[in-house]
Design a protein that fits this description.
With 648 residues, the protein is of the alpha+beta class. It is built from 26 helices and ten strands.
Length: 648
């Protein structure tokens, strides 16, 4: 018997806390019921234990989603009230010695399938990383720490969103010369008969002005505002570092970085640092050459707020490429349809839009078919607007699994981006970087929704090591530069003219423009994050650590007022603490796989077919190290990462 019904997107904010409390009460009772079973086994103990948290996630995810895409005082308040309730519950569960002992006994004594073994093994690891085996006093301390970390992370994120929304800079019409009209149309206003513009720190506007705005003083004002957002986050960082260090020590680890990699692919903290530094050494000479090339086009000193502007000038001169000439070819709807066609040609997927009442008129839903069967649902919310958090992400909602009754439950996920807004008279025209972003998030999405795993805790992205989770997203984004793929959707939105071979050639040539500098910047973030979580640094020491790393990685020194760390939400509010290196770690896997698929002609590739079956459909049911070797029949090769980035 199969249950193929998707959940309706519905959230009752008025009764949310009451409903959440009720679910948690039921879960706590369920725990007591299954603990009372005398002859415990996977089916009567671990399976219902798995599913009760799946149902809690299904209930809570809409609030988390709506708080990100339609943020309001009410969602902020309810989300903030929910966190301590959830944290208290999850910490108590994760430290429950009786559950830990029961799962361990089942793992050691029952004959289990590979999937069941993986579920039990990861549960045992999670219980031990949560301190289930420790004394009551230590558990109580850990519970208090978890609660405070969650609250501080939420505060960090909200401070950043508030600071972004509060800023505006009024400028004259002459100040926006050179900035694409499509990026600033919504910013103009009539100021007593004079046309003026309100610039803001939303990503489309900020990137557009930093790239094309000719007025250096305004660029600096925007840069200063952006890099000094939420100064109160400095104290939050200090508290978070202290708490995470203390938590790691209580669990028997030397520091939080060591704790972080216990559940990742990376074998040790030394190996992570060695990996980052090895890539830095490999990239530094090319980065220096790229900087000298940039300096040649201006006689003035280049500041941090000049880099994007002069880089665009150099890029045009070097490759004769103007991003604005490309945007008419990347109309949002055409790109989405082309992405779907690409997935159909590569994996046999079909995506069909369905009409649903969702949280915003711009949000859309699609059912995903494979072998003529509905496999999953995707929700997309792609345009920037006020009260929506910046950036782009995939958020999984439902997970493929078999429930306690043996009924199949299908997966669903959200894709959220912040592309230029459209209206009745103006389409949403994307930069190619936006296209890459959409492909990236779709890579995460299909990793989650195409799973065939029966156990929800290791299905889709669940159970995948954090330093491997970017593998599928990075793999898919690489195809956004391939001529075969681009010609599926890159059509002028007015003339329907397909993008020319010459334009594609220039795009590919420019792909690795300043890749050395870009690589160094990402490695700077990675090393800063990883070393930062090895000690409980004070606020001023955080800056000193960042400055010391920049001595080797930042060829252009940022101004003293730059407090990048206060906006580093990936590690302080997004789950990447001591794990930002994961992007590069996973990129080794994605580059390797990508080149093999390309060498096989992309469409009809045997490696792509195997990738669907081995990586996407198996989710987190095995270590990604095992799945990668099964896919490629060898260990990962870091040389392909450098090749992908055009670094000798």
């Amino acid at each position: 018997m199969y249950e193929k019904k998707f959940l309706d997107f519905h959230i009752d904010l008025e009764t949310f806390i009451e409903d959440l409390t009720l679910i948690i009460d039921k879960n706590n009772q369920k725990v007591q019921d299954i603990l009372a079973i005398k002859e415990k086994n996977f089916a009567n103990f671990i399976k219902p234990f798995e599913m009760m948290d799946e149902r809690l996630d299904k209930f809570f995810t809409p609030l988390s989603h709506i708080n990100s895409v339609q943020n309001s005082e009410q969602t902020q308040e309810i989300y903030a009230k929910s966190l301590p309730i959830l944290t208290e519950y999850s910490t108590a569960i994760s430290q429950n010695l009786e559950i830990y002992k029961a799962i361990k006994a089942i793992y050691e004594n029952e004959i289990l399938s590979d999937e069941q073994k993986r579920v039990a093994k990861l549960n045992i690891q999670n219980f031990e990383l949560s301190g289930a085996h420790l004394d009551d006093e230590t558990k109580e301390k850990l519970q208090s720490i978890h609660l405070e970390i969650n609250e501080l992370s939420n505060d960090f994120s909200q401070n950043l969103l508030n600071a972004t929304n509060e800023f505006e800079l009024i400028v004259e019409q002459s100040d926006v010369d050179g900035v694409p009209q499509s990026d600033i149309d919504d910013l103009k206003f009539d100021d007593n008969g004079t046309l003026r513009y309100k610039l803001n720190l939303q990503m489309p506007t900020y990137i557009a002005y930093m790239t094309y705005g000719k007025n250096q003083k305004i660029r600096e004002k925007l840069y200063c505002a952006y890099t000094t957002r939420a100064p109160q986050n400095a104290q939050i960082i200090e508290k978070l570092l202290k708490l995470k260090f203390e938590m790691a020590n209580l669990l028997g680890f030397a520091n939080y970085s060591e704790y972080s990699i216990a559940s990742k692919m990376a074998p040790s903290t030394d190996k992570v640092i060695e990996f980052i530094e090895k890539l830095s050494v490999a990239s530094i000479n090319q980065a220096k050459t790229e900087l000298e090339e940039l300096k040649e086009i201006t006689k003035d000193e280049i500041h941090s707020y000049d880099v994007a502007y002069y880089s665009e000038i150099l890029k045009r001169a070097k490759y004769d490429i103007d991003e604005e000439l490309y945007r008419p070819y990347f109309e949002q709807t055409s790109v989405i349809n082309g992405l779907f066609e690409f997935l159909e040609k590569l994996f046999g997927l079909t995506c069909k839009e369905i009409k649903l009442s969702l949280w915003h008129e711009k949000a859309k839903a699609y059912d995903v078919y494979l072998d003529n069967k509905v496999r999953a649902r995707i929700y997309m919310d792609l345009e920037a607007r006020k009260h929506k958090k910046g950036g782009a992400w995939m958020h999984n909602w439902q997970t493929h699994c078999l429930n306690e009754d043996g009924n199949e439950e299908l997966a669903s996920a959200f894709i959220v981006c912040n592309f230029p807004a459209s209206n009745e008279s103006k389409p949403s025209l994307l930069r190619h970087d936006d296209v890459v972003t959409l492909f990236h998030e779709m890579g995460h999405t299909i990793h989650h929704i195409l799973s065939k795993v029966n156990e929800n805790e290791i299905s889709g992205v669940n159970g995948v090591e954090w330093d491997a989770v970017e593998f599928p997203s990075q793999l898919l984004e690489n195809f956004a530069y391939e001529p075969k793929v681009l010609k599926l959707f890159a059509k002028h939105h007015i003339t329907q003219e397909v993008i020319s071979d010459e334009m594609i050639h220039k795009l590919i040539q420019s792909k690795n423009f300043q890749s050395g500098l870009s690589m160094l910047r990402q490695l700077e973030f990675s090393l800063f994050d990883f070393k930062l979580h090895m000690k409980p640094y004070k606020a001023d020491e955080v800056q000193n650590l960042l400055d010391s790393i920049r001595e080797k990685t930042a060829l252009i020194k940022p101004p003293a007022y730059n407090k990048f760390q206060n906006g580093f939400s990936h590690i302080f509010a997004g789950g990447y603490a001591a794990g930002y290196y994961s992007y590069k770690w996973a990129e080794v896997l994605s580059a390797d796989t990508f080149f093999q698929i390309v060498d096989e002609g992309i469409f009809g590739s045997k490696t792509a077919e195997n990738y669907l079956k081995i990586v996407l459909e198996k989710g987190g049911s095995y270590s990604m190290q095992k799945l990668f070797v099964e896919l490629m029949q060898r260990e990962p090769d870091v040389k392909n990462l450098l090749r992908l980035n055009g670094i000798e």
